[in-house]
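Office hours follow-up: a student asked to see two folded examples consecutively, so here they are.
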Amino acid sequence: MNPETTFIPPYYLKNTTLQTMLASSKLRTLGRNRMRDAAIEQILFVGGGVRLQGFYSKTSPPARGLVILIHGWEGSAGSAYIVSTGRFLFNAGYDVFRLNLRDHGESHSLNEGLFFGTLLEESFNGVKVIAGQHPQTPVYLLGFSMGGNFAIRIARHTIQSPIPNLKQVFCINPPLDPMQATLNIDRIPLIRKYFIRKWRRSLTKNQRLYPEKYDFSEAFAEKTCWGMTELLLNQYSDYRDPALYFGEYTLKEGYLDRIELPLTIVTAEDDPIIAVDDFRQARLSDAVELAIQPFGGHCGYIQNLKLTAWYWQFILKRLERAGS
């Protein structure tokens, strides 16, 4: 197997749960990080009164391009996989913009409305605003997990609303079927507790900021992500059926075969959350590159005790190819 295109970890890092947990380990953020040192907070006005938060890090000119990073569900611009990947790309000569989706990180005060996975327009507009600030710079988008699902939808949306300097999109373990991914999370106690803890922490921020609008006491009593989702949809959205909600950003049929922007997807056979068969069964357009790895867990691909990620070099080679 070619190590440039196939990830085979050492034996002591092959466990899928270990790979998944190490992806978010704060140990990956230790040490000097010139990308984080150079970061400037930006508030993006993305239409409809919605504001999104991001952090822009400009490398020494001339930059080879600008990479926009989108975190996964209940992650943020400060997540370990975002910060460590951003540092790698920054050191490789790329400007980096770490975008927070609504209600992620410390951005809850910017909008009263809750985050839902269906909020494509504001996320697309955020990427479009960032790219528009750098019209002469090639822009690339990299999304992780749920952020990868957003990135695929953004790539598809460029058919109707082009972003001229967005050159290529990359996704790490994006869920094509978010409803099944939610059910899979609930089946794994360690991962379920991790996400519920972070979700409750996030909702607590909303409740403290807008006590007249939100009371999450019933949601906090739920023991599963599915239960919390169903209750919050009933109380605070127009969705009465979780299947209809998840269906709005399910990407399994008639989706990847219509992508026109170059799109690279990395996913793993041993991902405990995302079903690899969804990708094997999907029809792909000629613009889509699918790289299924035998190992990696969910957004891990940790290749050594320094906690570096295999996909860093994998993506860098494609960035260099796109910019040549």
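And the second, which I mentioned at the end of office hours:
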Amino acid sequence: MTRPLIIKVTAGVDAPERCAQAFTVAATALAAGAQVSLWLTGESSWFALPGRAEEFVLPHSAPLAELRDALLTEGRLTLCTQCAKRRDIGEQDVIPGVRIAGAAVFAEEILAEHAQALVY
């Protein structure tokens, strides 16, 4: 049994390298067989919306939309409830497969047996 990996990404276009690193680590862990949950918080919240990841460009980095789609297919992608509300993002706005959840769910995932967490 692989240990779950929970990643919280706070950076978006404001810090593109940190943002891309979080998505890259998540997708790489998925490819290695890990159970991955990526949480979009702060400026990364915008990547829960259609077209936003497609607009993100960082030289020498995998396309963010491809990494996001891997998470939607093989892992879990969650948008922080408070971050969504601060940006007027609702359930009807997000890409299919993105869930909106809050701190209690994040803490529950972190406290799960053998979970490992990273913050970017």
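Two things to take away from it. The chain has a mean pLDDT of 94. DSSP finds five helices and five strands in the chain.
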